[in-house]
Amino acid sequence: MARTTKQPAAKKPRATAESMAAKQRDISVSEFFAKNRHLLGFDNPRKALLTTVKEAVDNALDACEEASILPDIEVRIEELVAPPSVSKPGRYRVTITDNGPGIVRRQVENIFGRLLYGSKFHRLKMSRGQQGIGISAAGMYGLMTTGKPMVITTRPNKSKPAHHLELAMDTSKNRPEVTVDAETDDFPETSSGTGTRVAIEMEAKFFRGKGSVETYLEQTAIANPHAEITFVPPDKAREDAELASDRPEADDDGIVRTTEHADRILYPRAVSELPPETAEIKPHPYGVELGSFLTKLKTSQEKQLAGFFKNEFCRVPPAAVKAITEAASTKGKSYSGQTWLKGLETPDAERLYKALQNAKLRSPPTDCLAPIGVRTMLAGMLKGVKAEFYTASTRDPSVYRGNPFQIEAAIAYGGDLPADQSARIIRFANRVPLLYQQSACSSFKSVTETGWKNYGLQQPRGAAPVGPLVVMIHMASVWVPFTSESKEAIADYDEIRKEMKLALQECGRKLGQYIRRRQRMKREGQKRDVFERYIGEIARACNAITGSDIKEIHDLLLEQAQTKTEIADAQLDEEGKFVKDEHGRLAKNDDVIIIGDDGKPAVAPEPDAGTNKPKPPSNKQTKRTAKKKVAKKVAKNAVKKRRTAKPAGLFES
Amino acid sequence: MAKRTTKKPSGKKTTKKAPSKSKRPVSAHRAERDKATSDAINKLATGVVKAAKAKAEPQFDVPTRAASNTKWDKKAGILRMGDAANTRQLFNLGQARKFMQTLLHSKGIGDLIEQNKTSSLRGMFYQGLHTIEGTKEKTFDDQTESDSVLEDLEVALGSLREELHIFAKKRGTMVGNITVVDNGDEINCRRMGTGGYAIPSICEPDVIQFKDVKADFVLHVEKDTVWQRFNEDRFWEQHNCILTEGSGQPTRGVRRLLHRLNKEHNLPIYCLLDCDPWGHYIYSVIKQGSISLAFESERLAIPSAKFLGIRAVDYQRCGLSDDVKIELNDRDTTRAKQIAAYPWFKDDKQWQKEIKQMLANGFKMEVESLITKDISYVTEEYVPARLKAKDWLG
Q1: Range from A32-46, A67-81, A402-416 carrying the lowest mean pLDDT
Q2: Is A484 in the B-facing interface, judged by CB distances under 8 Å?
Q3: According to a count of CB atoms within 10 Å of the terminal CB, is the N or C end of chain A lower?
Q4: Is the CB of residue B54 less than 8 Å away from at least one CB of chain A?
Q5: What ipTM, to 2 d.p.?
Q6: How many percent of chain A have pLDDT more than 90?
Q7: Is any Cβ of chain B less than 8 angstroms from the Cβ of A498?
């Protein structure tokens, strides 16, 4: 009715197709994400700070590595307005400075001012960032909460002054607006001479502890020991800013550790080799879905099927093309490498796609992966976690859905770690720490599914093990399957979880060996006690029967008892695994580090007795030496002690 | 080093021994045995001293006392101990304590021999008992621990318990047409009243001698209550025999006494035991020796001993009432089958039949069950009838 009669001035005009059409328009990506910012990790003021730091630091590390620069990164958080109450956010300025290659002037707006703009999305290459949402979303969040533009200073050429830009974003157009554009000399000297600084003002809340910026940086430092990271939290920001001056020194044991100063927290560089440059690969057919296969067919520059398969995918050699086209051929239609792409309709494409999925193809090349590596992981753990036993393992590359990936795991055990709590699990994807949604993550599941009891640890059913343990899991891949855009958890693919479990088992076996050895040392100690207890009785009985000298026989037997139990101690070092380097730390196999401690007995306490272990007074006082040395020393001391503490009267008469 | 083994420089000893005068004179045989025992002890201790000085592991061998190391000597009709031995080491966590205890007891026995005294098993436990210096640990937790060490020492030293100067608690009673000389005192076993002569734990010829052995045979019954019945009925007088009882599994003293009466005076031994696996095994031990004392079988076992009853057929033969049936439980059945499988029973058709019959009955009977017929049925009818008919198992 309403449609047929025209009512120009109706009070309640009904919507018509026409009127609706007038409202229907493009949704800008930035607009969408402005409304759905939780998808990008800006759910709340606490997380906003972390996400901003994370995106900036990830970008900085990627850029440095691509330019072969050892990264120096400074993260500074200043409190501009303190949170008025517990429930309300304050205002902060986050500044991240790197020594990367810098950004050429004309790209600055695009990189920082547009969502979904970047170099990393269109390629299959292992890198920290993937989608190109990160830093621009942070800038957008800052702009929305404070109205202040992002301030970017970048110096791509060391002989020229830096560019200073202030950038706002037009969310409706997904286009940046440059409000200030000037050349400036206000850029700190960096080791490379080039670099970028990003400053964003935002409503946020600063905190420490689980899921905080500090945790993120700590874990980043563990997975990226080639980077030096300086963190200036708000409470230290007003201190004397003589930053980046004194370099961290290795402590007495030759270990470079994270140190907290009055004005900053320093995560020092522990290795000075950059991760190897990774190759970019073409997608593997197994990982391609029908839709994208169709798109590829349409957009390919190639004219014929042979060229299409060769240049759009990896691992499809001419022999495979022949097999695929033959398999796809039917009575009515046959295909070959010479078939023209133009003539292919959707049913043809579907047939080809099916044949492609069923074809026997080699796994994708794995030179596109750069695992952290056992040595580097150990260096990172050693720097960030105070423990007594470290081990790491890198699995061979594997494939899920046509994407190559590689799993690594590391374990730190004992020392000052809390013994009565669940193990701490630190997760990484392409060297980026994952801080949220632990239980949704494939890596967490793999930890709970590993049988830690086999390795001498306690483990409640279906949970992580309990003990003084830090477990690190890293997944390196050209495409890490996250469960959401905020990149917090790795999706649960069987292939991935299986590899994770295998890596954990490798580490677990070494840990089990170590725990068992420690227990054996304890047993040997008890054994020695038993023998020594009876030796006096035996010496006296022998005297009564044969008239032999009590003291002589006693000492001879005591000596034997000690050699007997010392043999077992010594075996611990001679089984090949525990040989040390010049620092007395690294094992021969490179995958185990054991730190002895004079403050503790060589016969180490049970893992679950670790709670009441006295803490070493300070780092410097606790000399760390090889276990072997300690074992011998303790044994010697024990002998001395026993000799002196002999009960009087034994040798009388 | 060798000189130490022969000499005993007593000046260095920690324990002061008073050269006390022995109560009784030491016979030449005994002195010889004592010398052998103390030599064996000396050898054991010297081994330890030598090992200590050579920086070798102190150890000694203890022959294994287990069924696996027991051999059935069919010809002699007795059990013998095999050659298997366990090595006891000081530096072995499971053996260190026993090692120490063995040496402690060796020393204790050495002292007993030197002073020519004897001690009970319990006495030995207390003699070796003290707290180890600097600890709260005692050398022995209980007497069982001490007893098993002494048994080990017997086999390790190759000496009998008597020769170690150790006696056990006495058990077993005797009465009958015989006179016993016990350590010089004459005991007329015809005049023992209701109590009888308590059989001592050591029945060696140098302590116990027999005199006026007029009896024709020995009747050994399982326990005291049955023995009382026979004694009260003056059975031994009427049938001219010796009546003994072992309070269950007879001690070494009782077995040695029976063995000597059989060997020295050719007295046949008849046993009246319960009709159950335990009764059967008592007979087995009297006849061919026990597994744990296999090394002593030669001087304890009586291959000619006879099993008079109670037989499985007696329930029907004697017309016993249902009340005397004691149902066989699982343990009894298992044990009965175990006994039937012993090599010395395996080829004995009579015994196989007897055990089979008992299992088929499904119940066991005690000797006392015969009392249901009449209070003196066992002494007046049952045993005389069996003896007359020569109805027994051999």
Answers
A1: A32-46
A2: no
A3: N
A4: no
A5: 0.73
A6: 20
A7: no
The string of pLDDT tens digits covering residues A203-223 is 999 988 888 899 999 999 999
The alpha carbon of residue A529 is apart from the nearest alpha carbon of chain B, in Å, by 10
Nearest CA in chain B to A533: B132
More confident residue, B114 or A111: B114
The answer to whether residues B34 and B62 belong to one domain is yes
And the tokens for A543?
């005297």
Strand partners, B306: B270
Q: Is position A15 within any domain?
A: no
User: How high is the pLDDT of residue B363?
Assistant: 92
Of A509, A532, A551, which residue is a domain's last? A509
Residue type, A40: L
Contact criterion met (CB below 8 Å) for A627 and A619? no
**Residue A613 contacts B where some CB pair is shorter than 8 Å:** no
Structural domain containing residue B139:
24-167
Of the candidates A533, A544, A553, the beta carbon closest to that of B137 is on: A533
Mutate to test the interface with A, among B8, B12, B38, B88 (most CBs of A within 10 A): B12
Q: What string of pLDDT tens digits covers the 394 residues of chain B?
A: 344 444 444 444 444 444 444 445 557 777 888 888 889 899 889 988 988 888 888 888 888 888 888 888 888 888 888 888 888 888 888 888 889 999 999 999 999 998 888 899 899 999 889 888 878 888 998 888 998 899 888 888 888 888 888 888 888 999 999 999 998 899 999 999 889 999 998 888 888 999 889 999 999 999 899 999 999 999 999 999 999 999 888 988 999 999 999 999 999 999 999 999 999 999 999 998 888 888 888 889 999 999 998 999 988 888 888 888 899 999 999 999 999 998 888 888 999 999 999 999 999 999 989 888 888 899 999 999 999 999 898 8
Segment A171-191 shows an average pLDDT of: 81
Q: Are residues B161 and B310 in the same domain?
A: no
Sheet holding B269-272, edge to edge: B197-198, B173-176, B241-245, B217-221, B269-272, B306-309
A/B interface, count of CB pairs below 8 Å: 101
Residue ranges in chain B assigned as alpha helix (H): 2-6, 28-53, 96-115, 121-128, 143-157, 224-232, 235-238, 252-265, 277-288, 297-300, 314-317, 330-341, 343-346, 349-361, 377, 383-389
Q: Does residue B123 share a domain with residue B205?
A: no
User: If pLDDT is split at 50, 70 and 90, which confidence band does A121 have?
Assistant: low
Question: Domain residues for A65?
Answer: 29-207
Q: H helices within A229-333, ranges in order?
A: 234-237, 290-299, 305-312, 318-328
Number of domains in chain B: 2
Residue A634 is predicted with a pLDDT of 41
CB-nearest to A542 from B7, B49, B132 is B49
Q: Do B45 and A542 touch (CB under 8 A)?
A: yes
Mutation test of the interface with chain B: which of A523, A527, A548, choosing the one with the most B Cβ atoms within 10 A? A548
How many Å lie between the alpha carbon of A510 and the closest alpha carbon of chain B? 28
Residues in Cβ contact with A631 at an 8 Å cutoff, skipping those fewer than 6 apart? A521, A569, A570, A572, A573, A602
Q: Please identify, among B127, B152, B167, the residue that sits at the C-terminal boundary of a domain.
A: B167
Q: How far is CA A458 from CA A469, A493, A608, B19, in A?
A: 11, 27, 9, 64
User: Nearest-CA neighbor of A374 among A579, A593, A581, A585?
Assistant: A593
Identify which of A543, A560, A561 has the shortest CB distance to residue B14.
A543
Q: Nearest Cβ partner of B91 from A560, A650, A653?
A: A560
Residue A651 sits at the chain B interface (C-beta within 8 Å): no
**Gap between the Cα atoms of A333 and A330, Å rounded:** 5
State the nearest Cα–Cα gap between A520 and chain B, in angstroms: 13
Angle at A322 between CA A321 and CA A326, to 5 degrees: 115
Q: Is residue B213 part of a domain?
A: yes
CB contact under 8 A, B42 and A531: no
